[in-house]
Amino acid sequence: MSERSLDLDDFSDLIERPHGGLRREAEERRALTGLPPQALGRLEDVGEWLSSAQARVPVRPVADPRLVVFAGDHGVAELGVSTRQPGTATELVRELLDGASPAAVLARRFEVPVRVVDMALDCDPGELPAEVTRHRVRRSSGRLDTEDALTPEEAEAAFRAGMAVADEEADAGTDLVVLGDLSVGGTTAAGTLVAALCGTDASVVTGRGGGGIDDLTWMRKCAAIRDGLRRARPVLGDQLQLLATVGGADLTAMTGFLLQSAVRHTPVILDGVVSAACALVGQRVAFRAPDWWLAGQAGSEPAQAKALDRLAADPLLEQGVEVGGGTGALLALPLVRAAAALAAELPVREGPVDPAEDPSAEQASGVGAMDAT
Is 164 exposed, middle or buried (0-12, 13-18, 19+ CB in 10 A)? Predict the structure, then answer.
């Protein structure tokens, strides 16, 4: 790889864990509500995660979320690994921008602004708004089975673009990012990354994609991931080179976005297999970074399950959503908002609680005392 100015090792020093002491304080505050431990299930954990991410108890409501979607086409789609024709991710982007996609409907319903970042769509930039295309590094990523998806220079540019988007969102006051992707061939790239990082065979991570591919298409996809794996394994020690070899511009930018969001203390909800694969790469770069990310929902892609298991991330929902664009992560947003509201607004009792007045308080108070020790 040629000389480059971007050193991913810096992220290990820049990224801190969310405030652990405040998470314990949030646990103690919940105990003072008088509710039995785990009476609110996962909502308790999510509320405490938000408190530690915000470094604030009680937690602030989620007031300014943003759906950020990275988009690109992948040369590997030429092999017939998808139900969609190669180079047609632009159609998916237009549906989202026009408000006609599932993610657009949910974003509108939940009053979440949408931002689309074109990294490698196979269309003339003039076909889309300038704000969408201003970070593009190339027109479609290369075929990962036979050639590098990106040049070293393109990989660094894509990674820096993702970092810049993270900085822009943090500077704009975005307090929670819902992360999505739109691509044709992206799940093949994601499967290759996951298989390489987890040391598994192609067949273990090859799924049916968002369109429910038939058996013949699945075999072509499995073969593409197998060939990509042969090219990925020699560069496993260099995560930027790995992304350049088999990731593509959109996945490289998403990885940069995730890591810089952790630097800027911006919590992120992950969507499907593509964001999970990028998170897995990000974990290799900085082991503390995944503490800033929340798995929104589990789809049916085996590569996503493999990645989330390696990340020790338990998804909030299991809806099997595969349409992309952040749809599954958006479904988790109301739960995250509910967790924040409950953590912030449930009244707490002042001073010690008399167990004779409220038997449930003895259990709750006991847990709080244990957590405080």
Answer: middle
Q: How far apart are CA 227 and CA 192, in angstroms?
A: 9
- Please state the φ and ψ torsions of residue 350, each to the nearest 5 degrees: -80, 130
pLDDT digits (tens, 9 = 90+) for 15-41: 999 987 877 888 888 888 888 888 899
Q: Which of 131, 337, 158 is nearest to 241 (CA)?
A: 158
Q: Please tell me the total number of residues recorded for the chain in this structure.
A: 373
Task: List the 268-270 sheet strands across, edge first.
Answer: 114-120, 65-73, 176-184, 268-270, 293-295
What is the maximal distance between C-alpha atoms in the chain?
72
Is 205 in contact with 218 (CB distance < 8 Å)? no
DSSP structure class, residue 35: P
Residue 62 corresponds to which tokens in the numbers above?
């989620």
Q: Are strands 176-184 and 293-295 parallel, antiparallel or unpaired?
A: unpaired
Give the global pTM. 0.91
Q: Does residue 58 have a cis peptide bond before it, meaning omega lies within 30 degrees of 0?
A: yes
